[in-house]
Amino acid sequence: MKPTIITGQQIGLLGGPLYTTYKVLGAIHLARQLGGKAVYWIETNDADFNEINHLEYLDVEGQLRSLTWEMNSQGYSCGQIEIDRSLCDLLTQFFDTLRQTEFTPALRDMALRCYAPGRTLGEASRLLAQELFGRFGVELFDPSTPEFKAFIKPMLLHEAEQTPVGEQGNFFCMIGKKRMAVFRDEQGFALRDGTRVNLVECELVPNVKTRNVCQDAYFQTHTYIAGPGEIAYIRELDAQYARHGVKKADVTPRMSVTLIEPKAARLMQKQQIALDDALTLEKTALAQHIVKTQTGFDFKALTQQTSELTRAYFAQLRATGAAIERPFENAVLQALKEALGQQRAQEKARAEKLRAAAESLSDLLLPFGQKQERVFNLFYYMNLYGGLAFVDWLFERYDPTRNILEITG
């Protein structure tokens, strides 16, 4: 049997943050190495709408922007939420405020073709994933399908039997389009508001402690491509795997890189900003650090020192008998002060340029103070660097040992 390599991520607008792309490319990359099959688990059951309802990017002016889809999700699982005209308007605003390139029209058309009014976010996410990754041969999997739910139902009922009284079960019950937490009491199971539920009659979906177990049982997963948070919680799932007699898949970290755009490279070179500083210091701290280390002009101290030296010099001249009038001495001091003032203005202008450069670099590499891969989406980079060809470029350079990837084109 060919090994199955899986990665998964909850759905997000325009494919979600960039790390989702790294996970999918990681599964494809390893599957090709092992001669196996890559699967992208498109998580449609998650209900945290506020985590996925926004786009963050740098606009045509180089300013960080955040666009939010303001709508009442009614607590629905995100994959069940229907796309409305306001989302289409938001996506249009996103593309209109990007730097316009030869790739912008096709990318806008692709996005709006997938996110059509009346479709669900789950349907749109699958269509978009097909556009982005379909040519790599990856299998797209939606866990809301009846076949999968039927397969995992006995597992989740068994999990329910092991739930202690007073505790929440490691699964959810679907009530219409809502994913509801279920709690065990002396009489059986109930929702948070006390409504009784019959688990046998309910559609059940896994939670964070049973998702990977259900996944590995269904696919007999060889390897799962995971982010750092997933790796940590998967380590804690041995009891769940043993309970259901499921073999735990190997877990491999995804690639996690910071993309260095040409603009960022130019800023660092011209302004002598160290990459390590840009990746570790918050925006304000980076700007202060750069200005402090590259400008040392102290107007007050230099003015005082100049005055003291000049007065001492004239005092020595008078000691030799030279007739130097006070107005002349004062005029010299004033001229020196004005010269220092001009230098001060030049240094202030240079400091402002350094500050602006440092802040612009921080927005490129550490936007909103977060890792780049957690903020920007794939479309932001495709728009600038080749459209769909940028995805191929990333895949060709996929390496989980990398932490920096410079865009040279």
TrEMBL record:
Q: Name one Pfam family in it.
A: CC_BshC
Coiled coil segments of this chain:
337-364
User: Any idea where the Bacillithiol biosynthesis BshC N-terminal Rossmann-like domain is?
Assistant: 4-162, 203-255
What's in the keyword line of the UniProt record? Coiled coil
Question: Does Transmembrane helix show up as a keyword for this record?
Answer: no
Q: Where is the Bacillithiol biosynthesis BshC C-terminal coiled-coil domain?
A: 257-387
Q: Does the keyword Coiled coil apply?
A: yes
Taxonomically, the superkingdom here is Bacteria
Q: Which InterPro entries match?
A: CC_BshC, Rossmann-like_BshC
State what protein this is by name.
Uncharacterized protein conserved in bacteria
Q: Which organism is it from?
A: Candidatus Moduliflexus flocculans
